[in-house]
Design a protein that fits this description.
Blueprint (H helix, E strand, L loop, with lengths): L5 E7 L9 H6 L5 E2 L13 E11 L2 E8 L7 E5 L2 E7 L1 E3 L6 E8 L2 E9 L3 E8 L5 E7 L2 E7 L28 E2 L7 E2 L7 E5 H7 L4 H4 L6 E5 L9 E4 L2 E2 L4 E3 L2 E2 L11 E8 L3 H4 L6 E7 L7 E9 L3 E11 L6 E12 L8 E15 L2 E15 L4 E4 L2 E2 L14 E16 L4 E24 L5 E28 L2 E21 L3 E6 L16 E21 L2 E20 L5 E21 L2 E12 L16 E15 L2 E19 L2 E25 L2 E16 L16 E10 L8 E10 L2 E2 L7 E2 L2 E12 L2 E8 L7 E4 L4 E4 L4 E9 L1
Parallel strand pairs: 3-7, 19-22
Antiparallel strand pairs: 1-2, 1-4, 3-4, 5-6, 6-10, 8-9, 9-10, 11-12, 13-14, 15-21, 16-17, 17-18, 19-20, 21-22, 23-24, 23-51, 24-25, 25-26, 26-27, 27-30, 28-29, 28-50, 30-31, 31-32, 32-33, 32-34, 33-35, 35-36, 36-37, 37-38, 38-39, 39-40, 40-41, 41-42, 42-43, 43-44, 44-47, 45-46, 47-48, 48-51, ...
Length: 827
């Protein structure tokens, strides 16, 4: 079946006399075999050729990488003198430099690493300790065996039986994650996905010292903030490729929602799938989706405690606890706790967040496991709508100027509970089932900005309140299988999904509140009475049926085909205080196709092309002039690109796309109170992403996006051809760290961040413009044994800039020079 690549990774490193840390679980894998998805190990095949051997630094230890042209058998081990010896059956060396490999003194405590051919198609790997054979710590986790090696620690008599080697797909990939389940709902290498996907790994989140999703996404190409913090009914505001992502945030592949900013304290990585994603994720906007991958229970005890303090009276703490609850490791837990008290450079603005996130995994049997998860989040923060703009730019006031009231507040309690069940029917087929219940109760109470008088500086304000209860239920069932039709290999996914959303909001917005002057603010400090006057009671039910086939025609030619059918039903009621309720019903259905192809002219290069569609039902209480429902908005995208593995730890991705949202509602020029679906918004662009390890200890993640996002059809002449609000034409980000690998300063590291956004239209009418900015961040950190200290600086040169704007000519200023210090201990 052609060339297949498998890497055998041998890692040797010092172990402290404490339980193996989470880093050891993911990074200190003695043997790691990584295979293309869907390809099984066949030990009866002809002897596998090992074509390359490399020794790479890995923290305080090393990695031995063996490149092979096929699957490698699981090694057997023994101790000979001061050496730990692993023998690989059914393999031969075919190295360009000769028939053996040797490297002396590659790490402290390791005298020699050698790889040689033995009679009978066997390859011998020997790791020789300086003072004795390496001791091996074994972790029989769910993902395979994870081993750490302590150089120079002699084995006692009778300990040979604890030395084992195992095959695992897990590994600490640092700044260059190579696999994702978001794009296909299967464990698929990124190089085989015919669509733009970017992963922000935990390493980047920790090195940058960020704890909120919006900050974590600053290193993602084509993703920008769209404002609305605490004020938007759609939650955290982001644009992907110029389009909002309302309702397109997922957690472990399940739709989630929050009006509060989202924490990353219990998140392992963030995955961004760009472009329409309805084929697997249902109704949504065409720009793409965000998937937050949760931290999962580990098979080895690990405990982490951290504390943070920063500018503007910001402080917080977090704990991360995980490990087995049973002797055999079949039941494992993880508990993330965090509290943050967030200050601000803005006058009278502050906030706090509490997060409790427990999860439990139970291996019921060798073929069945279930994961129970839950999360409780409590958020509170002052609502701040920013600084007013004119056509000439921001008004001339200090960036700390706050023109709200300190009693204006957003708060929310949110609770999530669910489970995921996995069962392997056999080696080729498995079943999956998940259910999640989510409930949140937001409260938004503040004098909302209504009108800004540029001549006098007065801001008219309205007594605004929004509250209510929101509940969401998700459940699905999927089957994943592998089979062949002749020489063609298939990996299929079929599933059914049900979602039920119940929303019971209440609003208050009719009474005027005392105006305030932006140049000479006089705060009243007087809260107004909460007297809701408008109510909704909505139920939205959606059924989705989907199928996908990942087809391998040749080892270097793969196709992806998928189709989904959705039926979305809305029953909504609205009521003004004192009036009878009005009922609205609407049912929409749509097919969402997806097609893609990946071709590899050579092993490290993947060229791809794809076509995808999305749909988003219109709001059920909005009607045409004749009383009929509006059609769903649709999106479609054509994309081509290339994914290049520059090395095993450094990748470059290029994407070119044409993305359109159609059936957009625009005002009816004959009656401005009505709308017609004649609008279209088009986004075209180029994305370039680079991520990984350039040299041992030197990591980088960088993105550049050129974007042309414009209104291509609209009834309003003043809007036709305008730029999309908050979408920059050019966006660039770079975050890079270097950690000294040896010597007296080993563990000392430095970080540098560069973030550029070109000017952006402030609103759809393009009446004002947010200026471009170039921000510089920096970091200094030190790792030693089981603790880490770091200092992060945001906006090193204290520039003035604005992050996002709203349609009322107000924009949010970015933070000035900000310092955050953090200390964390693992044990």
């Amino acid at each position: 079946m052609g060339v297949r690549l498998q890497r055998l990774v041998v890692l040797a490193g010092w172990l402290a006399l404490v339980p193996v840390s989470a880093r050891a679980e993911t990074a200190l894998s003695l043997v790691e075999a990584v295979q293309p998805s869907g390809q099984a190990v066949d030990l009866a095949q002809a002897a596998t050729q090992i074509t390359g051997v490399r020794v790479e630094g890995e923290g305080e230890g090393l990695r031995l990488v063996l490149d092979a042209n096929g699957a490698l058998a699981e090694p057997t081990t023994s101790v000979v003198g001061n050496a730990l010896v692993a023998e690989i059956a059914n393999a031969v060396l075919a190295l360009p430099e000769g028939e053996s490999f040797e490297q002396f003194g590659p790490a402290e405590g390791i005298a020699l690493v050698s790889v040689t051919s033995e009679p009978g198609n066997r390859v011998r790997v020997a790791i020789t300790g300086s003072d004795g054979p390496p001791a091996v710590a074994v972790n029989a986790g769910a993902g395979g065996l994870v081993l750490g090696i302590a150089p120079g620690v002699a084995l006692a008599s009778g300990e040979n039986d604890v030395i084992r080697l195992g095959v695992t797909g897990a590994g600490d990939e640092g700044y260059n994650p190579t696999r994702t389940s978001t794009a296909t709902r299967t464990d698929t290498p990124l190089r085989y996905v015919p669509q733009s996907v970017q992963v922000i790994p935990r390493a980047v989140i920790e090195d940058r010292g960020v704890t909120e999703l919006d900050r974590a996404l600053e290193t993602a190409g084509s993703v920008v903030s769209a404002g609305g913090r605490g004020t938007s009914v759609f939650g955290p505001g982001f644009l992907i490729r110029g389009f909002p992502i309302r309702g397109a945030i997922f957690r472990d592949g399940i739709s989630t929602f929050s009006l509060a900013p989202l924490s990353t304290n219990d998140v392992e990585q963030v995955e961004i799938l760009r472009g329409p994603a309805s084929v697997l994720f249902g109704q949504g906007e065409p720009g793409g989706i965000l998937n937050l991958v949760s931290k999962q229970p580990l098979g080895e005890p690990f405990y982490s405690v951290g504390a943070t303090v920063g500018s503007f009276s910001t402080f917080g703490g977090n704990t991360d606890l995980t490990g087995p609850l049973t002797e055999d490791g079949s039941v494992r837990y993880r508990l993330n706790l965090s509290y943050e008290n967030v200050g601000s450079f803005r006058d009278f603005v502050d906030g706090e967040r509490l997060l409790v996130s427990p999860t439990l995994t139970w291996d019921i049997g060798p073929d069945t496991s279930i994961n129970f998860f839950s999360q409780y989040a409590r958020d509170r923060e002052t609502i701040d709508e920013g600084i007013p703009f004119t056509a000439d730019g921001p008004v001339d006031v200090p960036r700390s100027r706050f023109v709200g009231e300190d009693f204006g507040e957003f708060s929310q309690d949110q609770f999530t509970l669910g489970y995921r069940l996995n069962h392997d029917l056999n080696e080729d087929w498995s079943l999956r089932h998940a259910t999640q219940y989510l409930q949140y109760s937001p409260r938004r109470f503040w004098p909302a900005y209504d009108f800004f008088d540029e001549t006098t500086g007065d801001i008219d304000r309205t007594e605004y309140f929004a509250g209510g209860n929101y509940r969401r239920l998700f459940t699905n069932a999927e089957a994943v299988g592998r089979f062949s039709t002749g020489s063609v290999n298939h990996q299929v996914l079929v599933g059914v999904e049900y979602r039920n959303v119940l929303e019971q909001p209440e609003f208050q917005f009719s009474n005027f509140y005392t105006p305030i002057n932006v140049f000479n603010p006089v705060y009243t400090g007087i809260p107004y009475a909460i007297e809701p006057e408008f109510f909704r009671d909505d139920t939205i039910s959606t059924w989705g049926f989907y199928a996908q086939d990942q087809i391998e025609v040749l080892p270097n030619l793969k196709f992806l085909a998928g189709i989904r059918y959705d039926v979305a039903s809305q029953f909504r009621t609205t009521q003004d205080l004192g009036d009878p309720r009005e009922d609205f019903t609407q049912t929409d259905s749509a097919f969402s196709p997806r097609l893609g192809v990946v071709y590899q002219p050579i092993e490290p290069v993947s060229l791809y092309a794809s076509y995808t569609r999305s749909f988003s039902p219109s709001f059920g209480a909005s009607l045409n002039a004749d009383g009929s429902n509006f059609d769903p908005e649709t999106g479609q995208q054509f994309e081509v690109g290339a994914k290049v593995d520059i090395s095993d730890r450094l990748s470059l991705n290029l994407a070119l796309f044409d993305l359109r949202r159609q059936n957009v509602r625009t005002p009816d020029l004959t009656n401005p109170r009505l709308s017609v679906q004649t609008g279209e918004v088009t986004s075209r662009g180029i994305e370039l992403n680079l991520g990984g390890e350039i040299l041992p200890g030197w990591n980088i993640t960088s993105s550049y996006t050129f974007l042309d996002a414009t209104v291509t059809r609209d009834n309003r002449p003043a809007v036709q051809g305008n730029r999309v609000a908050n979408a920059p034409d050019n966006q660039f980000s770079l975050w890079s760290t270097y950690e000294i690998q040896e010597g007296d300063l080993q563990g000392l590291g430095f970080g540098l961040g560069l973030f550029y956004l070109s000017d952006r239209a402030g609103d759809l009418r393009n009446t004002f413009t947010l200026p471009s900015y170039f921000r510089t961040d920096a970091a200094l950190f030190y790792r030693r044994d089981n603790w880490r200290a770091q200092l992060n600086v945001e906006n090193l040169f204290n520039i003035n800039y604005f992050t996002a704007s709203d349609e009322f000519q107000f924009a949010n200023p970015g933070a000035p020079f900000t310092v955050t210090a953090r200390v964390a201990v693992e044990f």
